[in-house]
Amino acid sequence: MPAEAEHYAKNMETMIGAIKPETAAVLDRALSGQDITSEEAVVLFGTEGQEYNAMVMVADDLRKRTVGDIVTYVVNRNINFTNVCIKRCGFCAFSRDFREEEGYLLPVEEIIRRAKEAWDYGATEVCIQAGLPPKMEGDLYIRLCEAINREVPDMHIHGFSPEEVLYGSIRSESTIKAYLTELKAAGVGSLPGTSAEVLDQDLRDQISPGRITVDQWTEVITTAHELGIPTTSTVMFGYLETATQLAKHLELIRGIQQQTGGITEFVPLSFVHTEAPMFMKGLVRDVRPGPSGMDVIKMHAISRIMLNNWIPNIQASWVKEGPRMSQLLLTAGVNDLGGTLINESISTAAGAQHGQLMRPVEFRQMIRQAGRIPAERYTTYRTRRVFSDTDQELDPLDLVGDNVEEVFGSYDRLVKLDTYRFEHPTKPSATV
Length: 432
Description:
Elements: H1 3-17, H2 21-31, H3 38-45, H4 49-67, E1 70-74, E2 76-79, H5 108-120, E3 125-128, H6 140-151, E4 156-159, H7 162-171, H8 176-186, E5 188-190, H9 201-207, H10 214-226, E6 231-237, H11 243-260, E7 263-270, H12 277-280, H13 293-307, H14 318-329, E8 336-339, H15 346-350, H16 360-369, E9 373-377, E10 383-386, H17 404-408, H18 411-414
Parallel strand pairs: 1-8, 1-9, 2-3, 3-4, 4-5, 6-7
Antiparallel strand pairs: 9-10
């Protein structure tokens, strides 16, 4: 063992030896390569002071053992093609009722244009998620994928949340398996594992009644894996949930991965309360205004500790957390910083303050400043290129000036345009 590593190990051993035996036992189990239980995770959520410091150190050590010092990102573009939705989730400030003036629907041609533009700027992925428009044609998602795949065949389509897959299957009167099979044939390469705002049914019924259930979410995800479609996994936290609910969520995610092996990453997502209806309008009692900084670090560190043996990639969402906190999270078990995004609508609508584009050179700078090695990846974590300390090559996205909204548009501009105004399908003038 190199002298530096030996010194680090001794420091960690000393720190763990100085904390409560119960917490020390949990951390020792993790360091020995064992899976910790949800009950043990609850213990970690309660740590403070030296115990907290020891936990973060253990998370960082597990990260280093499992994935090394490389930190990844992907060059991608979000295409949130409509904000009109039949659901009224208490945390969502993005969706609009079809009767509202700010409802929009991008036509297929505009979606293709955005995908082509993203490819020209070096993107390897488009992430497609949106609201659930009323009376949607059942094959809409399939036609969108076919169109993108036809025009930009090498672009990876990371598309459609479990909620959207469920809606598409209902509207097309098909099973979830049959619908996913069609999506895969149309070009879907992976699914975002969103609509997972803590997989506890009682909690979900409070904040988003009528939303996809835990069982339905699990069915979509496991069926996708069965068909060879990988997915991500997520959790939204910082509103009403308990430590036990978070621990059980992680346990459920881990159980799915043990069964299928189809999850590529886990992404904790801080609740942004600024425009959230359940907070602003008091629709749900006792909602917290998002997590504290300590909560954010704990969530990422415990995710690493609990999932490390099964899901090697823990991602920090720079849109939710901001660049500084995301950089700090690299010392708490995180090894990925997500994507460039280019267009970000859902978090922006909720009041997130951290912009719609992260240039590749900015990712590389953040990573290097943290003492790590930057690398660009593909969606499923295959490495595209690793950058040396001396590599100063600029990507096409790096050359975009400060006029990002003028170049790519923005959510604020989009909802004000008459060009893409949503029209209810029952109207004779409506087109899809």
